[in-house]
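[Meeting: bench + compute handoff]

Bench side (C.D.) handed over the final construct sequence. Compute side (W.E.) agreed to return the predicted structure before the next meeting so the bench team could plan truncations. Sequence as handed over:
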Amino acid sequence: MYKNKKVVVVLPAYNAAETLEITYNEIPFDLVDDVILCDDASKDHTAALGKQLGIQHIIVHENNKGYGGNQKSLYNKALELGADIVIMLHPDYQYTPKLIPSMVNIIGEDLYPVVLGSRILGKGALKGGMPLYKYIANRFLTLSQNILVRYKLSEYHTGYRSFNREVLETINFNANDDDFVFDNEMLSQIIYQGFDIGEVTCPTKYFEEASSINLTRSIKYGLGVLGVSIKHFLNKLGLMKSVIYKKMK
């Protein structure tokens, strides 16, 4: 709890057995009330390890629903459990759980309803081993997105995010894509609905066990990201009416 606000960490997992334990053990349980693990039809023993670690809320997808589909299950479950603050943390140990107290504090003190862990603020990305081509693509896409959605973030592509309950109850995240573009649709929805976003500097680690997408999927992702931003821009002008911008509350 943080000032009587329930804190829930959600872990979107796919073949995360090698890194789940080290990630889980760094979660500050003096602050975090619940952890939800969603195993998206992993081929390893991710779900079994989660149960062994004592995670009480484990969702197992019999068929792979994708990165976005995984998050939908997690956010719906977190709301069902009465979460007031939700932190989405990748269980591949690419992002440190040690930033959870800072993110919770910012949301819990009503400074920002959304907080992102940015790899770009400071020198976290390249220092942590982000491939140069991914760094350049990140900077290009972020610049384009800032222009199109008329906001200013250091990056839109971090997988370390936290939200207050109102945000998750307001945006139509269940209408989003089930693949990796889901993350960008969420940020687009958040900005579209007028919520402010805070950022904290986040170190990151790139290593063999950390999840990543190949070049082909990276190109598909980049095109999808630009598509989301253009859709946002056209909806703001009243030239489109997309269901993802439907306000839920």
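W.E. noted at the follow-up: The two ends are 25 Å apart (CA to CA). C.D. will use this when planning the next construct.
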